[in-house]
Amino acid sequence: MFKKTYLMIVTLIITFIGTGFASAQGRVHPASDGIHSAAPGQLGFMQAASPIMEETIAFHNLLMWIITAITIFVTVILLYIFVKFNAKANPVASKTTHNTLLEIVWTTVPILILVVIAIPSFRLLYNQDVIPEADVTIKAIGNQWYWSYEYPDYEEIMFDAVMLTEEDEGYKDHPRLLGADERVVVPVNKVIRVQVTATDVIHAWTIPAFGAKIDAVPGKLNETWFKATKEGMYYGQCSELCGIRHGFMPIMVEVVSQERYEAWLEEAKVKYASLDAPRTQQFAFAQ
Looking at the domain assignment, is residue 126 inside a domain? Predict the structure, then answer.
């Protein structure tokens, strides 16, 4: 009996420590120098850069508080039971079989907890799924193993974004495995609709700081959206296992002012309309 009790106590302590450790993941980490990506050794979320991500972090923190409270409560109750109702303290076992009040409490309390969780959960799901009127639309196409981008409102702007290698110029300007030779450019504080599909297998377009993640499925056009509230360079990766080079499909989104965005559009119309524009090129390692 003692061994079983000891093992249960140790298990509960480990669970509690793990819960507290997980709750630390809700702490955001600030970006530096306008580069928004995970820092070495980072455990928690990146700094939120969109209303959806801010809401996601708030919901995560709420869950951690609830989980921690439940863990502490259950630990205390079990320890009390171990001490109060063990065989040594109670040589004559109680014959109690029902307790109406207790049964009502342990039925209603979980229901109330689920209601508390459901309200912000459904609100977050609704806000993620319902896309507001978009200011800019971008189409992202997943390929093995790089991304192609189109700006449907500007048919001249089409390009591929392939991961930079150590031999490429500008490789050291980006976090390892996250730099690409081209990046998506969007204006700050504008609603960006992202249409996502794929040409071969299932990929996933993801920018953690925006709280944006959606599958790119061949033959299907999915949509997501974000509204970046801070200028800078944001990084993401394909988040769906898509083949041998799955880990080498970085995503770069640069958020700029409206003036810089309009200037970039004029440059991009010329750059990507030329005969040598980086559009659907057949890179040897991507085939």
Answer: no
Question: Which residues does 168 contact at the CB level (< 8 Å), separation at least 6?
Answer: 181
Stated pTM of the model: 0.78
CATH value at residue 229: 2.60.40.420
Give residue 71's domain range: 2-89
Contact 143, 200 (CB under 8 A): yes
* pLDDT per residue as tens digits for the range 15-74: 555 545 444 444 445 555 566 777 777 777 888 899 999 999 999 999 999 999 999 999
Residues 46, 38: Cα–Cα separation, whole Å: 6
* Distance (Å, whole) CA 275 – CA 277: 6
Is 124 within a domain? Answer: no
Contacts 24+ apart (CB under 8 A), 83-86: 86/1, 86/5
